Amino acid sequence: xxxxxxxxxxxxxxxxxxxxxxxxxxxxxxxxxxxxxxxxxxxxxxxxxxxxxxxxxxxxxxxxxxxxxxxxxxxxxxxxxxxxxxxxxxxxxxxxxxxxxxxxxxxxxxxxxxxxxxxxxxxxxxxxxxxxxxxxxxxxxxxxxxxxxxxxxxxxxxxxxxxxxxxxxxxxxxxxxxxxxxxxxxxxxxxxxxxxxxxxxxxxxxxxxxxxxxxxxxxxxxxxxxxxxxxxxxxxxxxxxxxxxxxxxxxxxxxxxxxxxxxxxxxxxxxxxxxxxxxxxxxxxxxxxxxxxxxxxxxxxxxxxxxxxxxxxxxxxxxxxxxxxxxxxxxxxxxxxxxxxxxxxxxxxxxxxxxxxxxxxxxxxxxxxxxxxxxxxx
Length: 378
Ligand SMILES: *Cc1c(COP(=O)(O)O)cnc(C)c1O
What we know:
40% of the residues lie in helices and 16% in strands.
């Protein structure tokens, strides 16, 4: 297999990874071996350091994709008598609400339109009106559209009303700034395969150690009980159930590379430059983004489908033949497609992508990327 033949993944994840990260997986490690125990400790320590300081905060990794970690966090940190306020302006906010319903946690929602940030004042009103709400939960970057939610403002509102905050930072962790010292949070949830540029297979929660300690017996699930998982790590540095050893070896390497790139600041700067080049290039071809610049995160961009002879499938296949994988839109109303800025992707890759889009438009007979009439064009 020649990885150079794989397309560049301009998606929300899994993403294009570096050869060094993939090579780190070329190992067999015993789950109880001292080397693997040390590797876990390194991974947990590095993950905490991205957003908070030890020992107030600690990291509990969990096998699976990001959703497993979100479900584990809600089930473990929200007591059975608790109630969650889910901030919903896209599919991932809606998923928080759905998880609560499924695991039997009382839940209310503040709903906002998909192209608008969650409104902290609406959150404040909801909290004022319902003293039963114990936790507020929201997505940092709502990957449905690529929108940046105002986590610091929502955190301030929650703190002022004495409620706890759980942040789904899946597509933001490692690239968008968030620090516990400035933004009071109970827990932040993310996974290996987005801005950290590891491979998929593990999620994790960085939580206040005190909250984890108080969460014994909360979880309706055995496998997703973060309190028990944490106790096991604290006892002997080992996983309760079979760990994805190669995924963790890759994540350790990915975290070292993240630090070498300058941590959140360095990685965020590369993604912002990717975004700038993408906006400039696609804009010159006539494409119009869904979101206004102030709420556009440098993670993934939703583009309105052009007017004329448009077919996502045809567009996708033609780009795929040229070495690029993009993503369909995930909106209920307007037809859209998405292009990611994250992963081992550099501004020159984005320039090559924009050139390929130009070729494909010509082949499809699309004179411009401008949205058709009635599709909410500029
Ligand atoms: C990717 C993502 C998730 C988790 O998705 P999985 O498919 O389970 O990895 C959750 N929330 C957000 C905001 C995401 O971007």
